[in-house]
Amino acid sequence: MTQKIFSKDFRTFNQWLKGQAPGSRYAQRITRLHERFPSMNLRELKKVRVSDYDISGTKWDSLTPEQKSDRILALEVLRVMRKGEKLKNALANTGMKKETALQHLGKYVAKVRGYWRVKPSDTIEAEMHLFVRGEGYTTIVTTNSQDRTRIGKYLAAVGLALKSGDPAVLAPFEKVVITGANGDQYEPETDLEALYEAQESQEEPEFMEIYQS
Fold first, then answer.
1. Same domain? 130 vs 204
2. pTM exceeds 0.70
């Protein structure tokens, strides 16, 4: 297969890069774009818009159904990478395409010295499920990785409490408050009897799925 010529004066990206001024912002931008779209030539990269490679800041409610599914998978990629997994393996585990994952993770993942690195936290919106005090099993839109982690740990504790009948594991969540994207505040349910009732009302135990981003 014939390799696409990168630009009018340079056959490859590396040749082009060597001809650029050291520290050039233009060269840095093209380099970042080339990392995300390695098959594009210089002319194509110049036409790339921010929304083409970074929708991490797009509100959850503004995403299409397909984009919402992709974002959840991308956050799983982010979660396992924060545990030390390589991007290639994280993508293989989720079945995601690299370009799609990078588009959803945006500025929270970058290539450093040849390796893809992730930031320790993010403010990406995502929908999650939560047992809310006085409301039961509820869907909320979280706004950051810290809250996703709290909810993940809470759901894990709920699973243990329902299985063992011991409410002690729920004690750390009695004063936890989660603020959703709509500005409303949610308090996780820690009453074991209320959780048993909520469990019985669910046709599928979706809450057993643990999100720890």
1. yes
2. yes
